[in-house]
Here is the input.
Amino acid sequence: MASTSGGKTRLLPKVAKVKNKMPAEVQITAEQLLREAKERELEIVPPPPKQKISDPEELAEYKLRKRKVFEDNIRKNRSVISNWVKYAEWEESMEEIQRARSIYERALDVDHRSITLWLKYAEMEMKHRQINHARNIWDRAITILPRATQFWLKYAYMEEMLGNVAGARQVFARWVEWRPNEQAWFSYIKMEMRYKEVDRARQIYGQFVYVHHDVKNWVRFARFEENNGSIDNAREVFERAVEFYGEDHIDEKLYVAFSRFEERCKEHDRARVIYKYALEHIPKEECQELFKNYTMFEKRFGSKAGIEDVIVNKRKFQYEEEVKANPNNYDAWFDYLRLLESDGSSEQVIETYECAIANIPPLQEKRMWRRYIYLWINYALYEELEDEDVSRTRDVYRACLDIIPHRKFTFAKIWLLFAQFEIRQMNLTAARKILGTAIGKCPKDKLFRGYIELELQLREFDRCRILYEKYLEFSIGNCTTWMKYAELETLLGDYERARAIYDLAIAQTILDMPEMLWKAYIDMEIELEEYERARSLYRKLLERTQHVKVWISFAKFELTTGEEGCIEKCRSVYNEASTAMKETEDKEERLMLLEAWRDFEKQHGDDISIEKLSKMMPKKVKKRRKIQTDDGSDAGWEEYYDYIFPDDSTAAPNLKLLEMAKKWKKISADT
Here is the structure.
């Protein structure tokens, strides 16, 4: 088969036809092919034959041929330094040192910043003991590339190996003028120490710490002096470091190292002073490690008082961190202030109180002010009791009252404490003025009660009456206030006035605890043995309510009067109550009345009255009723107990049916 292209005929290769397309019996996997290839690589290949040169002409020809190859490679790409290095190394192997130098010089003209090139060049000269040539190369290298650390290190190492210590020192001196990294300085110092030149090493350290003024370098300098037995010099180094950093750039690591140094020197007092100075001048958030070391120091070498002082300082630090993170965390302020009050100066405590009360709650809601207001209370009590500054205490109370939004809420405790403070200062007029202002600005039950209690203690009963009248104008439905007012008049012996107060109280339409008021009124008449007045009050109360407890209380009252016929009067009250309770639908209250009546008859009645009352007792039956949800749907059935009274007209059929059921059950049991 052929194809034509451009008038020319081109024959295509024949494609062999595959006759058998079935898979081979032995399958070869890719893994097997790779494994065989790897095995063949591991086979020992015979080395290439060595070429032996027998005469100078053949050697010259060989050199010419190799140089031509190297020159061709260089001409192709002059910037590839490896070609130059290979060329120079070959000339060196041929002992053509001058030619090798020439090649290195040509290479440096191409790239004079190649560190590898300078190193190979200098190493060649040192290998062949061309010391002056090597020095020349190192000088040129460090002049052109002064930041290349390898040049300086190898140069100094060469001089030291040659025994030229002064030359090596001169190399290091030239190097440190460039302010190199820390390793260069340490190498310089180590060289001096190898030759026991401690003073020279000290001078180098003195320069080093001002070039690289990290704290760790000052600590190394001091440790160097300590290791060489110069304790005074080591202490002087630390003092220079403290002076160098000053108070603006103070670092806890320096003071920790300084204190540990003094510990090793058994100077515990010095170490303690250093720790305290550092804790006073370093910010709290930056001296955690310092404080930890100080705590350990005091535990090992301090007294009991010193250990307690450390613990107190640690707690102070914790509280300061808490209030700094959340200034409105008043519980943290309380703990912090309590700690300062137990162990702290008065000025510090007052300053902390001022910082605490400056954190006013963000919202004007009483629940958020409850804890905050106790800061003011504790502040005022501290000024009065501990600091004994009366004028400042008064200023604290006034400032607290000024900051409270009285139109929205107030704190009666503050007003009362302020008034009590003025009373302790024998200033009764000011105390009354404070409480009067409180009642006029933001009246509260607690304020009225506190003011009245104050006047009672002073035996100013006319003022108490005026205050009770104001209190009732503020809260006319407060039964406790009516009772306390009447109780005051009772104590003063003015019973008519007390009755008038009670009469006014029960005439009110809205009362929070009317049952307590009626009970107090009746109890007063009973104590005065005014039984007719008490009966009259019971009748008035029964006109308003038919509660079973009122009837039972009325009956018990008749029994306890001790008058002639009191038992019949009590029975009459029970009978009247039973008749009245028939009209109510609450059967449980009716049952409660009958049970109380039965207990009375058991104590004071006879068999006839007891039998008569037993016939009035209801029957207890179990019933079922539907349960409905709020939306009116059925929710099933429930069982409950009901009471059927014999004297009810609707109960007669039910009772008859119950009797018949009992008889049938009895007959069935007999048969």
Summary: The two ends are 127 Å apart (CA to CA).
